[in-house]
Amino acid sequence: MQKINRDVLIDRAISLLNSGQVSSVLGWRQGEFFYDVTPAVFTDENDIRENFVWNDFCGANFSKYLVSKTKASDGKILVFLKPCDTYSFNQLLTEHRFDREKVYVIGIPCEGMVDTGKLKAQVGDGLVSAQSTEEGLLVTTLYSDEPVNVDIKSVLAERCINCKSKKHVAYDELLGDEGQIEDSDRFDEVARIEAMSPDERFAFWQGELSRCIRCNACRDVCPACTCEKCVFDNPVSGVENKAPVNSFEEKMFHIIRAFHVAGRCTDCGECSRVCPQNIPLHLLNRKFIKDINGFYGEYQAGECVGSRAPLVDYNLEDLEASDVFEGRDTQ
Amino acid sequence: MQVNKYRPLIVAFCCNWCSYAGADLAGNNRLNYPADVKIIRVPCSCRVNPSFVLRAFQRGADGVIICGCHPGDCHYTSGNYYTRRRMALLFSMLDYLGIERERTRLEWVSAAEGAKFAATMNDFAEQVAALGENKRLEDLRCKR
Amino acid sequence: MNNRPETLIPVIGVITDVRIDTPDVKTFRVVTPDGKKAFDHKPGQCAMLSIPGVGEAMFSITSSPTNTEFMEFSIKKCGCVTDWLHQAEVGQQLTIRGPYGRPFPVDDEFAGKDLLFIAGGIGLAPLRSVINYCRHYRDRYGEIDIVYGSRSSADLVDYQEIIEEWTKDTGVRVHLTIDNPEEGWDGHVGFVPSYVKELSFETNKTAIICGPPIMIKFTLDAMIEMGFAKEQVYTTMELRMKCGVGKCGRCNIGSKYVCKDGPVFRCDELSELPDEY
Amino acid sequence: MIRKCSLTKLNDFFAAIAGDKTLYIPASDGAGGAVYKKWDSNTQYLDVLNTVKSPKDFFFPHTEDLMEFKVKGKNIELLDIRQESEDFVVFGVRPCDVKSFDILDRVFLSEPVDSYYASRREHGIIISLACSKPSETCFCTTFDIDPTEPEGDISAWKTDDALYLRANTEKGEALMALVEHLTEECDDAPVVAQKQNVKKILDKLPLAGLKLDVFGKGKTEELFDDPAWDTLSEACLGCGTCTFVCPTCQCYDIKDFDTGNGVIRYRCWDSCMFSEFTKMAHGNPRLTQKERFRQRFMHKLVYYPDNNDGLFSCVGCGRCLAKCPVSMNIAKVMKKLGGEK
């Protein structure tokens, strides 16, 4: 259950809208079911009262929308950001992707978001309703006579289980309590893969990446992917392709995409959330983050505005490429 | 005489200001290095985008080596420092995906180091030859 | 399998002549390797030309169907495929498939009518096949007026043919115009839409317009003002295409596919479609 | 006439078919989803409602090579690499997906026939499977599809203990002969019972009342400039998820790949949601995501019906509802434009 109630958000949004401080509100719109919320721009008080939602299914990170929405709007935009979203927000500001003056940020605490896939795996298909309780969710389905009690921890998204920070690194106003940078086990899975033999690693990634359908959802949702024209869409780039023709193309796309955001990826986990094939794409990004931390010192993208990303920086004493594998002799 | 001995195809990206001249020097000094090494001249080692490395593998390379100026000697002051970080991360990522780490290398070779150039290429070619054909980053279409 | 017909599989063509028309337009003559015309077509139809490895693109066939020996394509240099074609030499092979699209109704609606052709720039390319078809069967049509404008005299496509052949035909009047005055040009100067108005044609003519979208728009406005009905005016469209047969799904305007329901549209048909072209 | 095969013999049933023809069945993709896999004795049948990707792949693959060229100097040699498809069987195709083949047929089998598609279609044998547990995302009934009465060469119903089979076509009859020793004649009471149960669920589905009134033939003018497109499309990322999981999306791109020793011309799925879908040298008629978003839904709900006697190009399988990264989908579009929300 989220600590802040939807009504608190709605009241703030409406009062800011009515006072003219903001001209629109970027928030989550109720869908057909309890879980399919859509990012939306609200400008109308009644619309907000009726359709604005804040619950355990509001996973979408709004930061990237600010790039296009601030361009399209003359007035200020109110945006609600969860702690992990604020990192993407800062990173986009660092890269001068939108005008900070046009945004009013309300930070909201987050208790983690539910992965609907996990929920379905647990209670079965045919989800009808879900009610948040102290410990979890009370879910009804088309095929169960009684509501099923679901432990929230068992259905949280991977990125929320391994939440790196509940601290807001950017806001104009904070609702509720400020959180802390968390001790997270987010690199454990990376370490587990590193510990495999090369053959196992190859088989693991071959299996995962071969499911890719090249829908580009990971790229299009990624707050770090804000190029006007992606190399993979550009016919003269030499690497343009829109089909997972074979295992090479699948690897090419995902390696290069992860590399392009290396050092700028805040580990918000949107790529894995949106992947229709459930490819654990965050494990590629986290590998880069882990390596960067290990090779060049701890660095968290988006922690502060204006920091220099590790790949556009260097030290005279940097590790040599040949020393990368030192101490890692799994062959 | 052994026929059809497997010969690896090696792509070497060489910086125009150092290792490319180093290769020249190796040639002038009649130093041998394998003919399987195909040199691509780049204005600076930092011109080598990670996608170039992958493209080389796609097009049939069995090993890719990037040669640049020694740290501190970059013609553009700092290009090779960026290369160092990029390639360290890229090589580590390729390894993470289960691609043999011996297929990639970054070396600093100056224009005066013809001997080092030849030795590096000999060593790298041998290392790659020991691995055999690149199967993990191949594009079967290019082998038709 | 190989006995199943497949429209996506082209035939090989050879460029047998390259004519430089303007600084950015060249006309290519294409035949099959054994010297024949690749296929028959009707005026206004298109063909897919491709260079393997570069890409495939749709071009209108500029030569008249009455030419049974070869096909010609007037091509402006503006993208990947056209850039490549512009550096191609005589003898270069390419692939060609077609013909695609609905042709101009030269044997039905046009028959017996006075025809007014209006073209701007490279817009003459698709009209040239109709004009030459009508000239060939001169007795089937009434008077023919051709208004053709371009940025400058150097940009007039097929200038030679216009001067040496078209103007000498009986009952064919050619009205040339260029956008800006230049030395040695004693013809009309001005944009096509206003020139059309100046010429104040009888409104019983059937008109065929092709050119840049903005020119078509203003010319059409001018003609409606002059008293033409949309039903009298034809134009030909162009959108991105991949298959040429209404399957790849990208050249639609509303529910019409330009590749198979067009490229020739009557303006009243066009105004029923959504404004997305 | 209905025959049944005990579920204890399901593997023998698969083996009998696979002994004669290549067989594909839904199996786990290892990540919580399902995928059609080629059957071998290790393949475990996965009883799921829908596979992540639709079975349109079997007839209209995600990518396929069309032809090859060898280029020498100014000369081009064209190689026709087409090969007649071999007979294959797809088991477990849901009623909505079976209907999607009809929608694809009208595109690919209309003149000029697409020989690549036609060959596979002629050699494919479909064993459909009626739905016993529809999901909340299902709305096939909106498009007059009966999820309890699937089409296909053989229709199948799966109960707790048996698979009930009915051949609908000659191809189906021939396949039934292959498994005759594993099946027995039976009455259809269990099937009828299952149908009744499912009908009850169908009435309870959240999207059961989805209406089509405002869509269909000749509705372009009413719908094209509807202001709702602005708000509907505002969250759209422009990715191709909906398109690529959709059983009826059929747009494709033709591209050339230079292998270094020849050129392969291949075809791959394309999406009208992609920014460069209609991009030309001189510009793009669909400049913003709104136009591209509108195109996809107008195509399914208006343009396709315009060209195909009112048939809609959506089968209500619910894949896009489940997979869209921003949860914007055809059901929401239909409700909004229908004035419901």
How much strand of chain C? 25-35%
Most strands sheet of chain C: 7 strands, mixed
Class computed from helices, strands and strand pairing of chain A: alpha/beta
Distance between the termini of chain A: 45 Å
Which architecture name of the largest domain in chain C does CATH use?
Answer: 3-Layer(aba) Sandwich
Coarse morphology of chain C: globular
Q: What does the radius of gyration of chain C come to?
A: 18 Å
Label the structural class of chain C.
alpha/beta
Question: How much of the residues of chain A is beta strand, in percent?
Answer: 5-15%
Q: Strand order within the widest sheet of chain C?
A: 10-9-8-7-11-12-15
Q: How many discrete domains of chain A? A: 3
CATH class of the largest domain in chain C: Alpha Beta
The SSE order of chain A reads: HEEHEHEHEHEEEHHEHHHHHH
Residue-averaged pLDDT of chain C: 91
The name of the CATH superfamily of the largest domain in chain C reads: Nucleotide-binding domain of ferredoxin-NADP reductase (FNR) module
- The fold-level CATH name of the largest domain in chain C is Rossmann fold
H/E element order of chain C: EEEEEHEEHEHEEHEHEEEEH
The tally of helices of chain A reads 13
Largest interface: C-D, 46 and 55 residues
Total beta strand runs of chain A: 9
Question: Would you write up a description of this structure?
Answer:
The complex is a heterotetramer of chains A (331), B (144), C (277) and D (341). With 331 residues, chain A is of the alpha/beta class. Chain A folds into three domains: 6-113 and 161-174, no CATH class; 117-151, no CATH class; 188-323, no CATH class. Chain A contains 13 helices and nine strands. In chain A, strands 1, 2, 3, 4, 5 and 9 form a six-stranded mixed β-sheet that branches. A three-stranded antiparallel β-sheet of chain A has the order 6-7-8. Chain B has a four-stranded parallel β-sheet with strand order 2-1-3-4, with helices on both faces. In chain B, helix 1 (19-28) crosses helix 4 (114-131). The mean pLDDT of chain B is 93. Chain C is of the alpha/beta class and 277 residues long. Chain C is built from six helices and 15 strands. In chain C, the strands form three sheets. In chain C, strands 10-9-8-7-11-12-15 form a seven-stranded mixed β-sheet, sandwiched between helices. In chain C, strands 4-3-6-1-2-5 form a six-stranded antiparallel β-sheet, with helices on one face. A two-stranded antiparallel sheet of chain C has the order 13-14. Chain C is globular. Chains A and D meet through strand 2 and helix 10 of A and helix 8, strand 11, strand 12 and helix 11 of D.
